[in-house]
Amino acid sequence: MLKITHRGDEVEQFFGAYFNADRKVLYIGTVGFNDVGLHFPLALTSCKSIDYRFFVEKRTDVSAVLSRLGQTNREVMTQRLAAHPPQFFDIDVVADDEAITAGRNAVRATAAWLKGDYTDIVVDATAMSRGVCFSIALQVVEHCWKRSISPHILVAERNMPDLSVKTTSSDQVCYMHGFQGDMDLDAVSTALKMWVPQLSENNTYTLERIHQFLAPSEVCPTLPFPSAAPRRADELMLDYRIQLASWGVSFLDVIYADESDPIDVCNTIGRLHRGRADVFKGNGIEARTILTPSGWRVGSIGMLLASLEYQLPVVYAESIGYTASSNVVPVTNFSAPACRWHLMLLPKPR
Question: Which regions in the chain score pLDDT beneath 50?
Fold first, then answer.
């Protein structure tokens, strides 16, 4: 997979040079409670031909202040994108029987949008949940590669969020829609599984449940370093000291990847996966590398790239609720996020 990338100010420069009158663009994003998700839709308003489609992810356990923020962001988009009127689509993250349906529902909705005559399809992962983002990205990339259309992934993140938010995860651990691979086949039931989870704050319980679900033979946790908070990796190691000990993780097993660079995350996982595959190749030993995105969003996009490039399974627990640390609605922040990435994903020429 060829990755054409731009970061920081290069992203908006690319927009201005590339998305000209000859391009017809489908933009797929999400209306979230974080105003960082406003940046890319507003930055693309100069496109002559662009269709905006936004998911509204419906969860039952969301605090009132976050619901108000989501509604405010929707109103901002409706007003500022009036030249290209956006369309909004509700999707249920969890079904009535508590089954995780986010990815499936999003893919079903997107299938109708992909029938349009587009030259480019943009997936803005900034405000998307991982269950939606991964499934949509896979669907869009496969669709584009079959039809010589250019797929784009966008992601932005602020170093210091304006509001502290706590996530409530589902008790159900599952593979992401489209990222199960052959993990349900008897032939790989005894495969040597290497689990690569992102370590993140306030998530020890969820990652422990995923570990129990997988029962991996190896665990290689990913830590953000370098990071905007220099001691973040050390603090995470301290938070997870009990889990790391019970999982049999040594310091040599820990993966350090740049918090602000999805390519570094992708390449690091790729080297690890290829090296392990080479060891077992020819010995008749089945081995799998399984990813769990969690925590910092740019790192999750690095895991998405790795899973797309190497067809790696992805297991997770969906977020079913969010609570805020404050009941005060912050003023909408329209400043450009410090961390911004554009990735155009193209198949390698044969």
Answer: none
134 lies in the same domain as 7: yes
CA 264 vs CA 260, 305, 315: distances in Å: 9, 10, 21
Count how many domains the chain has. Answer: 2
Structural domain includes residue 188? yes
Residues 6+ apart with CB under 8 A from 14: 6, 342
Q: What residues are paired with 223 via a beta bridge?
A: 256
Q: Tell me what pLDDT residue 176 has.
A: 96
221 and 293 share one domain? yes
The Cα 51–Cα 37 span in angstroms is: 17
Q: Same structural domain for residues 200 and 292?
A: yes
pLDDT at 350: 66
Burial class (CB in 10 A: 0-12, 13-18, 19+), 3: middle
Res 69: pLDDT: 94
Nearest to 109 by CA among 212, 29, 170, 163: 29
Residue 229 burial (CB count, 10 A): 13
Find residue 69's DSSP bridge partners.
none
- What pLDDT is recorded for position 284? 75
Give per-residue pLDDT as tens, 58-71: 998 899 999 999 99
Instruction: Report which residue type is found at 250.
Output: S
Helix, strand, or coil (residue 22): coil
**Long-range contacts: 179-186, Cβ < 8 Å, 24+?**
179/134, 179/135, 179/138, 179/307, 179/312, 179/313, 179/314, 180/313, 181/288, 181/311, 181/312, 181/313, 183/288, 183/290, 183/313
Print the domain residue range for 223. Answer: 173-317
Contact residues for 54 (Cβ-Cβ < 8 A; gap 6+): 28, 29, 30, 31, 74, 77, 86, 87, 88, 89
State the pTM of this model: 0.95
- Check residue 328 and give its pLDDT: 84
Position 237 in a domain: yes
To the nearest 10°, the Cα dihedral for 314, 318, 322, 325? -40
The CATH number given to whatever domain includes residue 204 is 3.40.50
CB under 8 Å to 23, separation ≥6 — which residues? 47, 48, 49, 119, 120
